[in-house]
Amino acid sequence: MDEAGGTAMALRPRGLVDFRGRERAPALLSYPADAVVVVSGLPGSGKSTLLRRWSEAAAAVDPRDVHVACEAVMPARVPYAVYRPWARLEHFRWLRRGVRAGGPLLVHDCGSRRWMRRWLARPP
Fold first, then answer.
1. What is the predicted pLDDT for the residue at 9?
2. Strand pairing class (105-108; 59-61)
């Protein structure tokens, strides 16, 4: 049952599932153990918050975490714009490592890179 006392909706997504425009999103999402779930959306839409809440159930790759890790090893005087290409490469390396490790993987992606979406969607 859901909070309103009704029966909770469950969804077992396969392929692309877009929740925009739905009156009620499902209360439960169930994925296969080896799923790669990509969370995409506008800046500030809650992608990182959602991944943090889900991260107990699965590994998560968030570009903000990569940015913080890169920032930690750079001298303070070096602006992010200078090491952004390295941070993006690190993000891809974290993604590759997560995909190769198997098991569920949660990915925060801006969704604007077609090649990245194709790479993440390809069969293992």
1. 62
2. parallel
